[in-house]
Write a structure and sequence with these properties.
This protein is of the alpha+beta class. The protein has 10 helices and 6 strands, in the order βαβααααβααββαααβ. The strands form 2 sheets. Strands 1-3-2 form a 3-stranded antiparallel sheet. A 3-stranded antiparallel sheet has the order 4-5-6. It starts with 9 loop residues before the first strand and ends with a strand. 37% of the residues are buried.
Length: 226
């Protein structure tokens, strides 16, 4: 029997292999006025409940605060102690194979197999960038506070058509309608993403150019905070 959770929004439970398809079907029906967001497996629900209890701000107030976030200032101030040098930039990889298009939040990391149960939140907004306000996402270690998530994801939504499709306690995944199509555009985006999410480079691609190569024409973005 599926365990019931007391969350401030509706949710459904599906097999991991059906999660993305289910979300896309819900997105198409705007009459429901919701954004589907994959929350991951059952273990993630306890993290979500902790976040909801820790931050007692209303979604509306967080969304309002996000309007005061200056994206340029936010990015310029992130990791000032770690300037972007030749080592972190790296060289453009000539023989590069992009990551598989797999939503990490839907699979068992150890086996790579789809989870038997994946929870999908039905967030009461059609603007996916507002999701962090409802999940009270972030505000720990180097993970931005919810209003900062909203501001930069709104910026990327307007520029690239990026929208949140999954959010666990330490991961955000986005689907992207209009990813960068040139090397220069991909590098500029990779620099922004590095400043937003240090760990995807330092503990992931190793260089910004490697990240950029993975962003070129790619319709799935992944962010992870340690």
């Amino acid at each position: 029997m599926k365990k019931e959770f007391d969350l401030p929004f509706d949710y459904i439970v599906v097999h991991g292999s059906e999660a993305l398809k289910t979300c896309m079907e819900i997105i198409k029906d705007t009459s429901k006025g919701v954004t589907p967001v994959i929350l991951g497996g059952i273990d993630e629900l306890s993290h979500l409940q902790d976040a909801l209890e820790y931050n007692d701000s209303t979604p509306e107030s967080i969304i309002k605060q996000s309007e005061n976030v200056d994206i340029k200032e936010f990015l310029n101030n992130r990791y000032k102690e770690f300037p972007i040098d030749d080592d972190i930039m790296g060289e453009w990889p000539e023989d590069f194979e992009p990551d598989d298009d797999v939503l990490i939040s839907t699979i068992d990391i150890l086996t790579g197999e789809p989870l038997d149960e994946v929870y999908i939140a039905l967030i009461p907004t059609l603007d996916s960038y507002k999701v962090p306000a409802y999940l009270k996402l972030g505000d720990w270690n180097e993970c931005p506070v919810p209003e900062e998530h909203i501001a930069i994801l709104k910026y990327w939504n307007e520029k690239y058509g990026a929208r949140i499709i999954a959010a666990t306690h330490d991961i955000i995944e986005c689907i992207v309608d209009n990813p960068p199509k040139t090397k220069d555009e991909a590098i500029n985006l990779a620099i922004e993403q590095y400043k937003y999410c240090f760990d995807i480079v330092v503990q992931g691609t190793q260089t910004i150019n490697n990240l950029a190569a993975n962003l070129l024409n790619r319709k799935l973005w992944y962010f992870w905070w340690d």
